[in-house]
Amino acid sequence: MPGPLELTNTRPASLTAVDHDHARMVDAVRCEVKVVEEYLVIQEAYDAGFVALDPTAEVQTRADRATLELRRMLADPVEAASPHEARAPQPAQVAP
Predict the structure, then answer these.
(1) Half-sphere exposure in the Cβ direction for 92 (13 Å, CA)
(2) CA distance linking residue 12 with residue 19, whole number of Å
(3) Residue 50 · residue 73 · CB < 8 Å
(4) Which of 62, 75, 78, 86 has its CA 20 to 30 A from that of 68?
């Protein structure tokens, strides 16, 4: 069984830029793994166990588009499950 950085005969379509170049493909995968590892370190440093569903609760950047869409999608079921009161949207709790 291959390790986490070893490539098999199947390759994701997103790696077509390094098609037919095994060394470049391995480097691309290592780079992606490094980015995820660095991102996890940042995420684990947060002490808040919630996600603000209100897009105005935090400053957003262009890079946050996917997160904003996820928050919009999560806000609908949270709103539907909440008592119908006139109140500001509450943060969704993240399971530990």
Answers:
(1) 17
(2) 10
(3) no
(4) 86
Q: Phi/psi at 17 (nearest 5 deg)?
A: -65, -25
Cβ neighbourhood burial of 71 (10 Å; 0-12, 13-18, 19+): buried
Q: Which two tokens stand for residue 96?
A: 């530990």
Report phi then psi at 50, rounded to 5: -145, 165
8 A C-beta contact, residue 75 and residue 53: yes
CA distance 71 to 21: 38
Higher pLDDT, 70 or 10: 70
Q: Which SS3 state, helix, strand or coil, does residue 93 take?
A: strand
Instruction: Write the pLDDT tens digit of every residue in 35-78.
Output: 999 988 988 887 877 778 888 888 888 888 888 888 888 888 88
pLDDT attached to residue 90 = 60
